[in-house]
Amino acid sequence: MNLISMIREDLANAREHDPAARGDVENAIVYSGLHAIWAHRAAHALWKRGLKGPARILAQATRFLTGVEIHPGATIGRRFFIDHGMGIVIGETAEIGDDVMLYHGVTLGGQVLTQTKRHPTIEDGVTIGAGAKVLGPITIGAGSAVGANAVVTKDVPAQHIAVGIPAKSRPRNPDERVKLVDPDYYI
Ligand SMILES: CC(C)(COP(=O)(O)OP(=O)(O)OC[C@H]1O[C@@H](n2cnc3c(N)ncnc32)[C@H](O)[C@@H]1OP(=O)(O)O)[C@@H](O)C(=O)NCCC(=O)NCCS
């Protein structure tokens, strides 16, 4: 995918996810979440080419500007959306699929200090609510949601909702299989 197509896709995704979103030009200027993911893609490309120092410096500068800290080693799919930005931490070995959405204050963190896969895998179509902490090399299954302020330390199956501390999972009801952020709910 070329750069222009990727930027267009991200802007369309921002419009779809945020009922407050207006024009693309305005969104490209004001959305810290977009700035963070665009900078991450550049930092990740540097990281993969072995330019780890510059990648870390770019990630740190982005953190300073956006409040979103994404390690350049993290793997992130398409149409990733961060609403509100600020206070997000995504660790080095985190793997994020397509169509994932995070609210502010989410941590995808590790629990050990060894150089192993130590951060979560977030499958396609997952939404993680504000302030949630997802810790360790666990998997949040496709289409699941993590509630605001949950602390998740165990796998969550696909199409489940996990809430609480420690988080407990329950199957998502069929009528909940719509996007949690459908603008129709707000209009
Ligand atoms: C977890 C979540 C996805 C559940 O949505 P839902 O299935 O529609 O759940 P409901 O609102 O019907 O609530 C079901 C029950 O779970 C409880 N619950 C909902 N969210 C919860 C949460 N984050 N933590 C603990 N309990 C929660 C409700 O109080 C309710 O309890 P009850 O059955 O005792 O009344 C949603 O509540 C959530 O946390 N979304 C994140 C949104 C967010 O972060 N927004 C930030 C915008 S700035």
TrEMBL record:
<dbReference type="GO" id="GO:0006535">
    <property type="term" value="P:cysteine biosynthetic process from serine"/>
</dbReference>
<dbReference type="InterPro" id="IPR045304">
    <property type="entry name" value="LbH_SAT"/>
</dbReference>
<comment type="similarity">
    <text>Belongs to the transferase hexapeptide repeat family.</text>
</comment>
<comment type="pathway">
    <text>Amino-acid biosynthesis; L-cysteine biosynthesis; L-cysteine from L-serine: step 1/2.</text>
</comment>
<protein>
    <recommendedName>
        <fullName>Serine acetyltransferase</fullName>
        <ecNumber>2.3.1.30</ecNumber>
    </recommendedName>
</protein>
<dbReference type="InterPro" id="IPR042122">
    <property type="entry name" value="Ser_AcTrfase_N_sf"/>
</dbReference>
<dbReference type="InterPro" id="IPR005881">
    <property type="entry name" value="Ser_O-AcTrfase"/>
</dbReference>
<keyword id="KW-0677">Repeat</keyword>
<dbReference type="InterPro" id="IPR053376">
    <property type="entry name" value="Serine_acetyltransferase"/>
</dbReference>
<dbReference type="InterPro" id="IPR011004">
    <property type="entry name" value="Trimer_LpxA-like_sf"/>
</dbReference>
<keyword id="KW-0198">Cysteine biosynthesis</keyword>
<dbReference type="InterPro" id="IPR018357">
    <property type="entry name" value="Hexapep_transf_CS"/>
</dbReference>
<dbReference type="InterPro" id="IPR001451">
    <property type="entry name" value="Hexapep"/>
</dbReference>
<keyword id="KW-0808">Transferase</keyword>
<dbReference type="Pfam" id="PF00132">
    <property type="entry name" value="Hexapep"/>
</dbReference>
<keyword id="KW-0012">Acyltransferase</keyword>
<keyword id="KW-0028">Amino-acid biosynthesis</keyword>
<dbReference type="GO" id="GO:0005737">
    <property type="term" value="C:cytoplasm"/>
</dbReference>
<dbReference type="GO" id="GO:0009001">
    <property type="term" value="F:serine O-acetyltransferase activity"/>
</dbReference>
